[in-house]
Amino acid sequence: MDITTPHILVAEDDRAVRQSVTMALELEGYRVTAVGDGAAALDELDQQSYDLLIFDVSMPNVDGLSATRRVRSRKVTTPLLLLTARTEVADRVSGLDAGADDYLTKPFALDELLARIRSLLRRTSVTEASGALGLADLVIDPDARTAHRGARAIELSKTEFDLLELLVEHQGKVLSPSVIYDRIWGYDFGANSKNLAVYIGYLRRKLEEGGEDRLVHTVRGVGYVARHP
User: Fold this and answer.
1) pLDDT tens for each residue of 85-96
2) Residue 163 carries which DSSP code?
3) What sign does the dihedral 38-43-44-48 (CA atoms) show?
4) CB within 8 A of 81, min separation 6: which ones?
5) Structural domains in the chain?
6) Do residues 185 and 178 make contact, with C-beta atoms less than 8 angstroms apart?
7) Phi-psi sector, 202: left (phi>0), alpha (psi -120 to 50), beta
8) Do the bridges between strand 52-56 and strand 7-11 make them parallel or antiparallel, or are there none, so unpaired?
9) What is the pLDDT of residues 22-77, one digit of tens each?
10) pTM to 2 decimals?
11) Whole-angstrom Cα distance, residue 193 to residue 190?
């Protein structure tokens, strides 16, 4: 198989699910390494890099949330998708808080899993040709994937950066949740989803950590906009 083919690490303790996901991904042309718990996944990441990580939340030794936190603490920005049987909003928020880029509940349709994977890989592969973006004292460098407010560097996850870049690129224009979901996740989670609101909250806390003015605003019933007050 071509070495340029995306290599996916799957960590899932349910053998049947692990095997079926592995088989499906390989049939789609991906390279797959599959392990049974979070500890084994972290060991794999010590040995080589991957294009996408898929972790089940409930695993022995090191669970998916803990593994995700450890991955992000190492400054690894590889797209990460969590799988879980938990359906409560609080559980999804916990997964996003841990550093996951996307969250899929079980049982899931194979087509949806593949769509989420394509979306995450597509976001990784897109190279921005534009130069730095600016709004007030915020400067974003799409090529270096860095963000600063004045002299203060802002640490952002991949999804946070993509979301902020989208809003600033279209500053002054109100973007609806459906547009943002399509551009960032490649999938519309629906009107009841809290994923976007969670990430908007993350951005505001980080952007305003030094007491700066708010740049990301909510237009009730319409969407979100980046603009200087």
Assistant:
1) 876 777 777 888
2) H
3) positive
4) 52, 53, 54, 55, 100, 101, 102, 103, 104, 116, 117, 120
5) 7-125 (3.40.50.2300), 133-226 (1.10.10.10)
6) no
7) alpha
8) parallel
9) 999 999 999 999 999 999 999 999 888 899 999 999 998 899 999 999 998 887 87
10) 0.61
11) 6
